Amino acid sequence: MTVPLDQSDKKLLSSKMLGKYIDTCVRILIVIFVADFMQRLSYALAEYFLYGNHYLLEERLLTILRRAFTYNSKTICLTFGIMFLGFARFGRTGNLNQLLPSCSDFAYMPLYWIYIYAQMSQSSLSYAHWIRDAHGLDYAAGMASNYFHGYLKLSLPARNGEGLQQRMTDYEDSQNVKFGLRRLIILVPDEMFVKGLIDSPLFEKAKPLETHFINRAGVNRPFKHDVYRLNRKINNTSYYFAIEGATPMLSFFDAMHHQLSATWQMQEMKREIWLKFCKHLKGLLSTWPETRNEVELIFYSAHNSNGEHVDEAEVIINHVFKDKVIY
Questions:
Q1: pLDDT digits (tens, 9 = 90+) for 39-61
Q2: What DSSP line would sit under 66-94, residue for residue?
């Protein structure tokens, strides 16, 4: 005959079950930490003996150890959490043996190594999450950084009176015209393709801004910005614009569609790369004082809801002249 448990007995049984569950979790996680440490050590040894030429000789060992045994903040928090649970359980029971793994527990370590080797937690989302992280090592951030440091940061700021603002002022004075926006407009469509010449009945190619030469790594590089005249009048005025497409995005578009460089990951992650490029470039331009008010980035969908290609001129007009009278 089974005697029913009263309320206090049920609470005691539940407490014991929870305690055993916590003890088991602590033991399992200790085994995982040890397995991870051994795997990191094996990686460090392989790195030292197989890829030693990737490091400077005097810094090789310390660099490899630092890379192998650097833990992220989530792992550190988890470690402290397990230590707290372990101390709490030890203070409650006074039995350390129930928290430490046995030899038979360590026999399951190969399961962790198999899990890591098979990359069972990896998916296409892993690529997306990595691109979104702010480490600056991904393709998108690299393109944005190169574009900023190798072109925009050089050609736009005023140096010896030859910055973008001065060239636009000289252009207005010499041509007797007016710019609709005293910034360089950079088009960044989501399909990443911009023609060398903006083909729109609303725009007419005009004389470009004065070419600006800057010595870069021993090469006297010319920096040139195209100008277009808007054929529609805004408040009875015909405006001019300095416009160009984001050349790194065009290069990426070419890389995606060329058999020598295209990969399925590039195709799969192309929108993630576009979004990260936009975000990173915008952040660089707004952070650096000399470029903060020199560029107008226009991010837009290259096709409308019907799948038709949008007119770049319409995009610019809608972006710049939201509340103006158009004739």
A1: 999 999 999 999 999 999 889 99
A2: HHHT---HHHHHHHHHHHHHHHHHHHHH-
